[in-house]
Amino acid sequence: MKFDGHTKKICEIDTALILPVAEKLKSINWNHVNYSRDEPPLIKGKVIELPFIIINSTDNNSRLDEHSIEIINLCKPIIELVQQYFPNHLKVRGEVATLLPGKALDYHIDPYWFHANCHRIHIPIVTNNECVQLWAQPFYQEHLEVGYVYEINNCIYHSAENKGNEYRTHIIMDICDKNLYMDYVVRRGGTALDWDWLGPVTLPTIQEEI
Questions:
Q1: Per-residue confidence (pLDDT) for residue 59, from 0 to 100
Q2: Strand 140-142 and strand 45-49: pairing?
Q3: CB-CB contact of 161 with 45 (8 Å)
Q4: Fewest beta carbons less than 10 Å away: which of 13, 75, 87, 145?
């Protein structure tokens, strides 16, 4: 499922799809509690969760204000474009993720089964030249440009950093082969994936210098 390396470009994306989302993002106060993250490696990030199979927030509906709902609707044409490149795949989890100026995520490997078995897609919506995706051991960094859809390797230690003066927002999607997903669900008792029973995969430990 995963590829060697760090990133690969899936396709170009028309800025006419991106600009309405970018414009609407200007109305978001990312410091509001509604957009806070709970996961320790990502706690410095901000998020609007997309209504896919897995929702991390048990009270997600109460966190969706009118601005969030409008952004989710504006993201739909972008999501539909991405799905064209992954036939017979399901949208397992998604988010509109923001990293504020001067912030960086902790290095981590995404721990759950779907992380290891999905394509991790990034679509930059708002960024600046001081934003980079980072990988450890060996160190590698790359700026993801607006106008492209990327797949990234999230099964090696990685992070993101925004050294710029503007926020950075990506649409992030985890997309899984439908047959693989259904086989996993059936083996786990025939219920949809959710955070209550989804088991983490075994991960290596990271060296202290990272």
A1: 56
A2: unpaired
A3: no
A4: 87
Rounded distance between C-alpha atoms, residue 16 and residue 46, angstroms:
25
DSSP string, 119-184: EEEEEEEE--TTEEEEETTTTEEEPPPTTEEEEE--SS-EEEEE-SSS-EEEEEEEEEEHHHHHHH
Tell me the one-letter amino acid at 119. H
Place of tokens 């700026």: 143
Q: CATH no. for residue 83?
A: 2.60.120.330
- Is the overall model pTM greater than 0.85, yes or no? yes
Whether 38 maps to a domain, the answer reads: yes
Helices 15-25 and 66-84 cross at an angle (nearest 10°) of 160
The edge-to-edge listing of strands for the beta sheet with 131-135 is 140-142, 131-135, 158-162
Q: Is residue 198 part of a domain?
A: no
Report yes or no: 71 and 25 within 8 Å, Cβ to Cβ.
Answer: yes
pLDDT, tens digit, 9 for 90 and up, residues 73-127: 999 999 999 999 999 999 999 999 999 999 999 999 888 888 889 999 999 999 9
Instruction: Specify the number of domains making up the chain.
Output: 1
Name the residue range of residue 59's domain: 7-187
